[in-house]
Design a protein that fits this description.
Mean pLDDT of chain A: 88
Distance between the termini of chain A: 30 Å
Number of helices of chain A: 10
Structural class of chain B: alpha/beta
Number of strands of chain B: 14
Oligomer: heterodimer
Distance between the termini of chain B: 38 Å
CATH superfamily of the largest domain in chain B: P-loop containing nucleotide triphosphate hydrolases
Shape of chain A: globular
CATH architecture of the largest domain in chain B: 3-Layer(aba) Sandwich
Number of domains of chain B: 2
Strand order of the largest sheet of chain A: 1-2
Order of helices and strands of chain B: EEEHEEHEHHHEHEHEEHEHEEEH
Largest sheet of chain A: 2 strands, parallel
């Protein structure tokens, strides 16, 4: 009973942001399609915008809801389940909306879906609507779970840990990793990693987009397991 | 029958022991006063009862069920915390509606009635409420929930004298109409003394007293009369404190009173709970 109510609450918190997001998307599309002349411009991949939006939603889905639900005596385990109960319909709904909007935008402007751009070669053979939908759903679920995990991890960290992660992660990706690649990795190794990632996400290789679906799903499961471990003993913090 | 049992609870924050081996039984339909000086561990205990934090040792049972991650046990408790954890953009009415979803016995009509009495607007956003009105908002939620255990942490924080008076009246009215176990954690002992039945005193994380107010008050007495008469009578006795107005003095004495030995012109009354509290927690 409380699980249903808690997920209803989280869903209601996300709902308005989703509506505003699509309103902006539609307005932007109308603006660009009317402002640019036919043939010389294109508009691609709202899936990436949706994924980024859901990542931000995930980032905003913990603290406020956690404190409110704790005030109403909802245990952490129930809160964790209710987040996913609310997130799944949101991601499914957004994947369906994006698919529908893609079809509409295609008629009014030069529009390509991100899925179409990435898996162009395979779309004819394997990429039917269901796979494309599944790809979007798992991508969105992975994005919202990543946001949820990051905000939860920050909530559990103390001040020093927060500073270390906030500085350490960007420094690693912008300075340490490029330095390692430039100085210690051969072109063969870099190509091997690049090809591995491309195959994993089905851009190259024989598995196609279904491979990316599996990767997103595994990432979502891993992130949710880590999130559960973090929320399980999360205390209510005063500030 | 609702009963809460706190068994050997210890809570440590790093190397600081906030609570040490606390054991208590909270009986059904009683009003408890949870008293202690700043940092004594009152809020920590209330946070542990509602599983907002986890104990280092021990357990808290509601009707025999451990409260930790227990939906059923936690649904029987409402905690009015000192801090506000409701979303700031939420209106008072929306907060009531959501609380009703979580606590199905929440009385919306009663909540609206209390809002009118305290002049709290239903369409007001929580972030626009003053400190006093935030306390009123949380207190209305707590009184309207109709759960077996209501925990109030500093319920009159920021309330003016009129609202405090109204709050105590409404609390008693609510308790007499729908009895429940209420724990009030407060520093305003004099005001709460008239409504609490049992007093729990925590000092530096340790439970030093868990008795009925009646029994605590019987440990001492107040004696009033002319300054010289009071001084004469209390000489050699354990005096907790004294108030003097003009030529009249009221002394608070700890110890048993032999009524036969009271000189004429002196009046004996119940001692002040606050004076006893100060004496107990200063030792």
């Amino acid at each position: 009973m409380r699980l249903k109510t808690a997920s209803k609450y989280i869903f209601s918190e996300i709902k308005n942001s989703v509506l505003i997001f699509y309103l902006i998307i539609v307005l932007l599309t109308i603006f660009f399609s009317s402002a640019t002349s036919e043939g010389n411009s294109s508009f691609n991949g709202i899936e990436m915008m949706s994924a980024i939006f859901l990542f931000v939603v995930g980032l905003n889905s913990f603290r406020k809801n956690y404190l409110f639900l704790m005030s109403n005596g909802v245990p952490r385990r129930t809160q964790f389940k209710s987040f996913f109960l609310a997130a799944i319909p949101v991601t499914v709904g957004m994947a369906v909306i994006d698919l529908a909007l893609g079809a509409i935008f295609n008629r009014i402007t030069n529009y390509n879906t991100l899925y179409g751009l990435l898996y162009q070669d395979k779309t004819q053979s394997t990429g039917n609507i269901i796979i494309s939908l599944l790809w979007s759903i798992t991508l969105y679920l992975c994005a919202i779970t990543l946001g949820y995990f990051i905000t939860l991890a920050y909530y559990r960290m103390n001040k020093i840990q927060k500073i270390c992660v906030s500085i350490g992660v960007p420094v690693f990706f912008t300075m340490v990793l490029p330095y390692i690649i430039y100085n210690f990795c051969s072109t063969t190794t870099v190509n091997w990693v690049y090809n591995g990632i491309s195959t994993m996400f089905g851009v190259t290789g024989s598995y196609g987009s279904i491979s990316a679906v599996a990767v997103f799903l595994v990432c979502t499961i891993l992130l949710s397991v880590l999130s559960y471990l973090l929320i399980r003993k999360a205390p209510v913090k005063e500030n | 029958m609702s009963q809460m049992e706190i068994k050997n609870i210890t809570k440590k924050f790093a190397d600081v022991t906030a609570l040490e081996n606390i054991s208590l039984k909270l009986e059904e339909n009683k009003i408890y006063g949870l008293l202690g000086r700043n940092g004594a561990g009152k809020t920590t205990l209330l946070n542990l009862i509602t599983n907002r934090i986890f104990p280092t040792e021990g357990e808290i049972l509601v009707n025999g069920e451990n409260v930790i991650e227990n939906d059923n046990a936690l649904s029987k408790i409402y905690f009015m915390a000192e801090n506000n954890y409701y979303p700031e953009n939420m209106t008072v009415k929306k907060a009531f509606n959501w609380t009703k979803e979580f606590y199905t016995d929440f009385d919306s009509e009663y909540a609206a009635e209390l809002c009118e009495k305290f002049s709290l607007k239903l369409n007001q956003k929580i972030k626009t409420l003053s400190t006093g009105y935030t306390s009123i908002f949380k207190m209305i939620l707590a009184l309207s929930c109709n759960v077996p255990f209501v925990l109030l942490d500093e319920p009159v924080l920021g309330l003016d004298a009129n609202h405090r008076d109204l709050f105590y009246k409404e609390l008693l009215k609510n308790y007499s109409e729908k009895p429940k176990t209420i724990i009030i954690s407060t520093h305003l002992i004099e005001e709460a003394a008239d409504i609490i039945e049992d007093v729990i005193i925590i000092k530096s994380g340790k439970l030093i007293l868990n008795e009925s107010v009646e029994s605590v008050l019987s440990q001492g007495y107040a004696i009033t009369g002319s300054i010289s008469a009071v001084d004469g009578f209390t000489a050699g006795k354990n005096i907790l404190g004294a108030d003097t107005i003009g030529g009249i003095k009221c002394a608070y004495v700890l110890g048993h009173l032999d009524k036969a030995g009271i000189p004429d012109g002196l009046e004996v009354t119940k001692p002040d709970l606050q004076k006893l509290f100060i004496h107990m927690t200063n030792r």
